[in-house]
């Protein structure tokens, strides 16, 4: 695809659309938009704009489409796959000014929000009305709900409450030619036409730019209990995961963490936490509902399962403060790992009973290639984030051999019935691995769909495939 | 689109693929495949085949694609929108021999099933292992799981457990050119490439033929309670629906039924049921879980809400037999209505707090055009099935004016934030109404997607748009 550069004339037209205060052109101003949370990647767009209205986004898209200017839509820039990077320069559209919660409709248990609302702000606004929006990635304090839609983001509560797909009812979307549509209806279900809402979710900003979001909400559970179980081996902890469901329990969170992850959180955050010898892995397990007795009964049952898997110790959080602290360990793990070592984060997902084979396989592949790893993630969904640690690996090996090691990890993931990325997306950095799972037929269909929406290929080019 | 007829030569090739015992050509044999459960529609395919393997389906599709023969895939033929009718003749592929439950994987809480498995047989097989597959349309005793996927079918338990979209993990699909793909992975979530699983769900057999299905299962709740609440007006019953959720309860079923529907079930099924004077509408409300005390507490709360909406009486089912009988009333209502009058069934869905306006509007439109109606459905989802009753309407009005009345019902539905069809699909009979909700931009995208999968337009032509 041959793109044009943004000329002085085009810049004037862009400025006329959004106003001078919403256009950034200097290197210093654009710097912040040249990277996301993916390791070591820097791409400068030519121009950054911060529109506020759907009309402005539409006019920008039409202008860029007519002039073959590549467009990169961007949420909060917290992505882990390079999806928001302007790899072809061009125009970067930051959605940060689309930051209004338009309506929380208590009669229908629905909300209308703009895509630039920070996920946690929306979660809290819903909670104030006794409602739950259960999509809460670890980055919830900074990521945008629009980015969550684009990447099909998850979080700990997917395991009980379903993925973001279950909550997105209707999306207002600006298409690459500037047309604006609502993808569906503000209803809990419908069966009329190919479901464009679902097609847009996880499309990583390559099919259209979401400008309004209608979400489902549910009554917020009033009670919960949180327990941290420790194990001597990763394998035991992972094997306990599927056994909990087999015992008839669906926890509201079921997270796996390796010891080293917790050690680094302790170092980085200055937490006091009594990390016993011989403990290598942890499960953080939450149960929620409206009735505390019934939650405790579930916890008892879970305990019974854990014992069968050589659980060493169960810490039962006895206050909200302790619950908050345990959750903080899990949520800040990514940041702590990042601050401790050069690393690469991979996102794997398998059927949950395959977790023990996955974690053992990852460690074996690490031994073969000379890297170590810190793994954690949403074990209840079979979703394991693999942080590959450079540590003692020499630069040459890190740069030349690592890709082979990652390839082996994904080959194992696929062999276990899984796939690349449970919730981080493919973006720029995972696309080379896509052929490990998907065939030329998949690529042909995906590219065909892309061409239907974006015949000129201007929207977020170079991502996914 | 110009299609070819099935020549003697092609018939020989078809027979070579599936075997002579799997090919039907005489009018008498094909009769059963010329209609579905939609009113008054008869279309004969030229040939019916009943393949047993994915290889056979692939070879049939390739042959038909090469020779421009239209292909109609068919499940159990229980559809209500004419989606399985061979409107252009050609080859009808019945999936009835794909009737195996291949695996119920208790370690992963997943199952692999063929699309021709009767939904209830699968539900029962899962239940025997303590697992719940919660997608149970009223036709569950005869419909196929593959037809449910094609039509995005629902049922009473969507309201708590989510739509069929939440349960379909991975589909094996034969594309119109004979290529076979798996749409995704056997995982509870993933974010890698446009989600073809979700695109296939609800595509009504126009993009590919599903030959294997991987579903999610969940632990089956061990306890439930069922109550039937009666109201003097439809409006009160409908208004109570959203209030139940606002009170923090998510019932496992919340069904609305009009008095006349119950009267007709009593007549048709010879049920004994004490239908009190002055009662016009009913809500059938189920709560489930693992703890009976907690379920009863929910029922108390629901009762409190019902009282605020002038509920006249609440019948609390006190045995499994009584529960079964109440459910039978709801499930057999469609059949009873059908046997009592010439009718047309429409499927509407709105945000649930809009139900009172929807039902009042439907009655007002009926008065204007001279038809009456019996409404019932999954009120908790805002999904109302509208059975328009011919009764005293003269043939001329029925044939000439009815379409205007239906148009007004759908205009109202759309004005209330809803859309056509919550779970029946568009098929043949609803497609004229699609422009009431969707714009030329939607149609252009849908047709573009259709062309990507099926450039020759051979697969289930004439459906949806």
Automatic annotation (TrEMBL), chains A, B:
Has keyword Phosphoprotein? Answer: no
Cofactor(s) listed in the protein's UniProt record: FAD
Query: Its domain of life?
Result: Bacteria
Keyword annotations of the record: FAD, Flavoprotein, Oxidoreductase
Record keyword Flavoprotein present: yes
FAD-binding PCMH-type domain location: 41-220
Name the Gene Ontology molecular function terms of this record: FAD binding; oxidoreductase activity
Q: Which residues form the signal peptide?
A: none
Which PANTHER family does this chain map to?
Answer: GLYCOLATE OXIDASE SUBUNIT GLCD
What name does UniProt use for this protein? FAD-binding protein
Q: What organism is listed for this UniProt entry?
A: Mucilaginibacter terrenus
């Amino acid at each position: 695809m041959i793109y044009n550069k943004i000329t002085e004339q085009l810049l004037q037209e862009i400025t006329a659309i959004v106003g001078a205060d919403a256009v950034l052109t200097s290197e210093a101003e654009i710097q912040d938009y040249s990277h996301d949370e993916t390791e070591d990647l820097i791409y400068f767009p030519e121009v950054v704009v911060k529109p506020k209205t759907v009309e402005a986004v539409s006019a920008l898209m039409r202008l860029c489409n007519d002039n073959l200017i590549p467009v990169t839509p961007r949420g909060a820039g917290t992505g882990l796959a390079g999806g928001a990077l302007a790899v072809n320069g061009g125009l970067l559209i930051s959605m940060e000014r689309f930051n209004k919660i338009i309506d929380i409709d208590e009669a229908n248990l629905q909300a209308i929000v703009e895509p630039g609302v920070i996920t946690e702000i929306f979660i809290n606004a819903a909670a104030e009305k006794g409602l739950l929006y259960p999509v809460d990635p670890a980055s919830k304090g900074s990521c945008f709900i629009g980015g969550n839609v684009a990447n099909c983001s998850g979080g700990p509560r997917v395991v009980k409450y379903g993925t973001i797909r279950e909550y997105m009812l209707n999306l207002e979307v600006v298409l690459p030619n500037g047309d604006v549509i609502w993808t569906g209806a503000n209803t809990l279900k419908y069966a009329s036409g190919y479901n464009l809402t679902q097609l847009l979710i996880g499309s990583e900003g390559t099919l259209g730019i979401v400008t309004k979001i209608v979400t489902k909400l549910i009554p917020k559970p009033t009670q919960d209990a949180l327990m941290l179980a420790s194990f001597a081996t990763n394998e035991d902890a992972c094997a306990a995961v599927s056994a909990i469901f087999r015992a008839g329990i669906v926890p509201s969170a079921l997270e796996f963490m390796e010891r080293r992850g917790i050690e680094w959180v302790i170092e980085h955050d200055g937490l006091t936490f009594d990390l016993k010898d011989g403990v290598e892995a942890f499960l953080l397990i939450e149960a929620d509902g409206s009735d505390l007795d019934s939650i405790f009964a579930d916890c008892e049952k879970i305990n019974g399962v854990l014992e069968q898997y050589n659980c060493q110790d169960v810490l039962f959080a006895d206050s909200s403060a302790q619950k908050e602290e345990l959750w903080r360990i899990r949520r800040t793990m990514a940041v702590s790992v990042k601050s401790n070592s050069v690393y690469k984060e991979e996102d794997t997902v398998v059927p949950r009973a395959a977790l023990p084979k996955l974690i053992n396989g990852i460690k074996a592949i690490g031994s073969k290639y000379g890297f170590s790893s810190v793994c954690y993630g949403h074990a209840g969904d079979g979703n394991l984030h693999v942080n590959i640690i450079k540590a003692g690996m020499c630069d040459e090996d890190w740069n030349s051999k690592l890709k082979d090691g990652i390839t082996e990890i994904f080959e194992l993931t696929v062999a276990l019935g899984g796939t690349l990325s449970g919730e981080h997306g493919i973006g720029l950095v995972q696309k080379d691995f896509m052929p490990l799972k998907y065939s030329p037929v998949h690529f042909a269909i995906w590219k065909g769909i892309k061409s239907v929406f974006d015949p000129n290929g201007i929207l977020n080019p170079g991502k996914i495939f």
